[in-house]
């Protein structure tokens, strides 16, 4: 989920940066065979506004999903199983979030260097950075990044929000530390078992076998099938 949003944010930014360069340095910007003179282009505010709006919409949607996921998975009384993410997963989340923050900082800096007219885009990236830092601190230090299981689904929330429902399953397989959930409509979802602390994995696997009817769902790769 997070990767998809970040990819589109990067694509839109990449498409807008040459235009910001042309406007900021009064260069000629070429697109679809047209030559646009940056210093005389009267729609630059519109272009930057559309770009800023799309980037903000993507980032806001991503942030909303993450905060909503945190709220849901921390309603402990709704879950049969609930635990904080493992130390291994925390380290990976911290690394990826740091790379994400650095990327936002660099893109925002480049926009403001290229053109002061793109200041709103840079400010949006500042908002993303603050939001990511607060979310990370809340999740790691506040122990809000968690994995939960109900009778109907598995919910995992950290930098990614993962919901795996048991309805419609036809097969669950395990390979090393990765679970694969295959559905009747050919959808396949995966879950990293090492997201869960080692001392809680046995409990997690036991409840998974309890909640999923093995008469309707085939289990593959498990020790006791």
From TrEMBL:
<feature type="transmembrane region" description="Helical">
    <location>
        <begin position="120"/>
        <end position="141"/>
    </location>
</feature>
<feature type="transmembrane region" description="Helical">
    <location>
        <begin position="93"/>
        <end position="114"/>
    </location>
</feature>
<keyword id="KW-0472">Membrane</keyword>
<keyword id="KW-0812">Transmembrane</keyword>
<keyword id="KW-1133">Transmembrane helix</keyword>
<protein>
    <recommendedName>
        <fullName>DUF5673 domain-containing protein</fullName>
    </recommendedName>
</protein>
<feature type="transmembrane region" description="Helical">
    <location>
        <begin position="46"/>
        <end position="61"/>
    </location>
</feature>
